[in-house]
UniProtKB/TrEMBL annotation:
This is DNA-binding protein. Transmembrane segments: none annotated. Residues 101-126 are annotated as: Disordered. Residues 229-262 form the C4-type zinc ribbon domain. The keyword Electron transport does not apply. GO terms for molecular function: DNA binding. Residues 103-116 have a biased composition (Basic and acidic residues). Residues 41-216 form the CT398-like coiled coil hairpin domain. InterPro entries: CT398_CC_hairpin, Oxidative_Scav/Glycosyltrans, Zf-RING_7. Keywords: DNA-binding. The lineage of its organism: Bacteria, Thermotogati, Deinococcota, Deinococci, Deinococcales. Pfam families: CT398_CC, Zn_ribbon_9.
């Protein structure tokens, strides 16, 4: 890759190995014309686009592990909120039950105090019976609630255990992904460096316009002429446009159909 470019087009199509870019490819590049350099800028831009897309695409195992953890978190949260509600109702009922039992105890004391008054005795008797029935109802309500609280508690413990079990695998996958993204960024750093050097050697207005076209076209700002056609939009180019493009003068000729800069390589 350090030799000069006898066939610039051919040379430019060869991508440097990741991390091997820089000085070796830059020296011959600066000998080429502005169009070849702009073409190389575009290759780097496309590679940087690809790196960004690759960085954003999360590997399936990590995606699944993250989703699994989130599912567990959500279910655990739901379970804990439900359990809290059930426990609150249990506490309320237990309080009411204790109050009812106190009332019963006091009613029994009063009944004992009036042991010789038959009418009062029977009044307290029916009050005690009523309170007893109410207490019984509360106990009946409490039993399924306690069972439900126990089930929810068990489920929460299960979910916490599953979450704990998933953690080392997820940490491993996250570390792998960090390394993957780091590698991609290192590759990108070399490309950005090469791009900056190339751009510094080019007419800034041409570069700015290329950037604008590329952004508007979501990909290519510069299209090669092949077989008399614009490779950007495949239109057949008028001969005078082809001739002007072949002269390789700035500002670059634009495709009359898609508006991209046209370049004739090799
Ligand atoms: Zn075109």
């Amino acid at each position: 890759m350090v030799r000069g470019p006898p066939f610039p087009g051919h040379f430019l199509k060869v991508l440097p190995a990741p991390g091997a870019s820089g000085g070796g490819t830059l020296a011959p590049m600066s000998d080429t014309g502005p169009f070849q350099r702009l073409y190389r800028v575009q290759q780097l831009d496309l590679d940087l686009d690809r790196l960004r897309a690759e960085e954003a695409s999360i590997p399936e195992p990590l995606r699944e592990a993250r989703a699994g953890q989130e599912r567990l978190n959500n279910e655990l949260e739901d379970t804990e909120i439900t359990l809290e509600g059930v426990e609150k109702r249990i506490r309320q009922l237990e309080q009411d039950l204790a109050g009812t039992r106190d009332q019963m105890a006091r009613a029994r004391e009063e009944q004992d105090k009036n042991a010789f008054d038959a009418r009062t005795q029977s009044q307290y008797g029916s009050r005690i019976q009523m309170l007893g029935e109410r207490a019984e109802e509360m106990e009946e309500d409490l039993a399924p609630l306690r069972e439900r609280a126990r089930d929810l508690g068990n489920r929460a413990a299960e979910l916490r255990a599953e979450h704990r079990a998933l953690r080392p695998r997820l940490a491993e996958l996250e570390a792998q992904d960090e390394a993957r993204v780091g590698g991609l960024r290192d590759q990108g750093a070399g490309m950005r460096e090469e791009r900056a050097t190339l751009v510094a050697s080019l007419d800034s207005r041409t570069v700015k316009e290329y950037d604008l076209i590329r952004r508007a076209k979501k990909g290519l700002g510069l299209a090669e002429i092949q077989g008399g056609r614009c490779t950007g939009c495949n239109v057949n180019l008028p001969v005078n446009v082809q001739q002007r493009a072949a002269q390789g003068k700035l500002p670059p000729v634009k495709c009359p159909s898609c508006g991209r800069f046209l370049i004739k390589l090799g």
